[in-house]
User: What shape does this take?
Amino acid sequence: MTDVSNGAAQRARIAVSDGDTGFVQVLTKRLDRLGWEHVVLTGAVPVERLVAMRLGAFVVDLALIGPDAWSYLEKVCRELPALPLVVCTGQSTVAQRVRGLRLGADDWVTKPCHPEELIARVEAVGRRRRLAASVAAAADTVVAGEIEIRADQFQAFADGRSIDLTRREFELIQMLAAAGGRVLEREEIYQRVWGYAMAHGDRSVDVFVRKLRTKLQRASPKWTYIHTHFGVGYRFAAEPVVEVASREASGARSSDPGPAPARRAAPARKPVRACA
Amino acid sequence: MTDVSNGAAQRARIAVSDGDTGFVQVLTKRLDRLGWEHVVLTGAVPVERLVAMRLGAFVVDLALIGPDAWSYLEKVCRELPALPLVVCTGQSTVAQRVRGLRLGADDWVTKPCHPEELIARVEAVGRRRRLAASVAAAADTVVAGEIEIRADQFQAFADGRSIDLTRREFELIQMLAAAGGRVLEREEIYQRVWGYAMAHGDRSVDVFVRKLRTKLQRASPKWTYIHTHFGVGYRFAAEPVVEVASREASGARSSDPGPAPARRAAPARKPVRACA
DNA sequence: GCAGCCTGTGAAGATCCTGTGACCGCGGCG
DNA sequence: CGCCGCGGTCACAGGATCTTCACAGGCTGC
Assistant: This one.
């Protein structure tokens, strides 16, 4: 299982990537006094290195990144959704700020800016949790039921055969599988897989879940992997399909409606259903 | 148990407390377009009312609150630590902003400010909160009697098996369980779970309590969890079903839906009531 | 013991949510 | 240039869930 993270929290480690050396100096002095560990970066550090740093927060000046700033920002947000990220720039337009925030930045400050405020903002962002939960599930392989999700191949396999997932499908299943059986709301799923805020009414998640289910079912008919929680979202968990003697029933969700006084005791234990 | 705030919910509901009607108008129009539910507040709304609103975010202009702004802010942060809070003001000094952020505000924007940016910031805060919540969710499990209420699954379990609660049912039981054994009046329950004032004569709470009792009894027959306080409301507490050694079962108003129409048994005593 | 309000039940609709299949635009490839 | 795989959007249909009602039985207060 991939999952989670470092949870523990040594001292807050913050990375600052900014071109204004004077500003950085004042800032680091202040951080020192507060007992924060800090790293000063001087350019676009590859995301993998960021992951390895186990940061507690990341302050970045887009100007220092160069022309690829946006894609860099997007990548950081995608790979490290749990990393508190504060963008710090000189001039910037409303549109830029909105774009950055929607991509996943947690805050955006415009210089000139008082170091104390920047620190307060970083604190505010990371306040309630000190988990550099690197979803960096990146390098490993997850096995669930009959399938195997290999990050290094961007593909999932059943019984050794590729399931032929497209890129999005793969990202979706990987994200779900990495959640460790928790129910994830559509918005969270969207945010993590697509990398930006979900528009109201967007059904993409549902559609891809269907595509995934179809392929999974074809590859591994005896198991169900993605469960719907009505009114909430989806949950990933490999569960064997309990088939009551009947024939059909690929459907899965169906068995027992509820308070129904009649039926009961068919399945010795709860199989697939979760909530709905 | 974290508090209820915005469980996870329906459409994002945001409260805006700002004196600049023009700004508010533009903002609400924008929110409408995005499909967000919104409430406009015109002054310092008591924290209890905020709790009942089940907000997904709160934008507040300190100037509108008056001289007690700071203590108000502090109170809101203390009572609703999970509520995404964005302060919005006209002029402000670095010291004020730092103070506000330290107190618990998630962001602080200074007008003039483009509505779009404010919205993007609110979204960013909400997103961050949600991620944090989902990680912390694991710890958010309440156990009572034989059942276990898991926030990360939006579901309750008895003996490891899902009780198949629907979303509302789950929110209701979670809310009741979070009350720590206090008797809650219907109105309060309704406010907290549904998020708005209960219409006179609305029986929804009763209906859902029944549904819950039915499912709980099916899953855990030896315990009673929801107790009626006649003329008052309901109280959640796991109590073993008192079995009178002899024949009849304790009458307990929630006796048993199953065999139903048959038994009646003079209730030797009412085990359920407490004070009323 | 009686009248009157309060709560427990069941069931019928009204609503909202998710599953589907079809359709479109894009970009890579032959 | 046409074909094809992939992402993304729509509108519709089937269900699941939520509300609302009407009725019956159980408390309370007198």
About this structure: Residues 166-169, 202-204, 207-208, 230-231, 253, 267, 270 of chain B lie near DNA strand D (CB under 10 Å from a C1'). The mean pLDDT of chain B is 82. The longest strand of chain B covers residues 233-240.
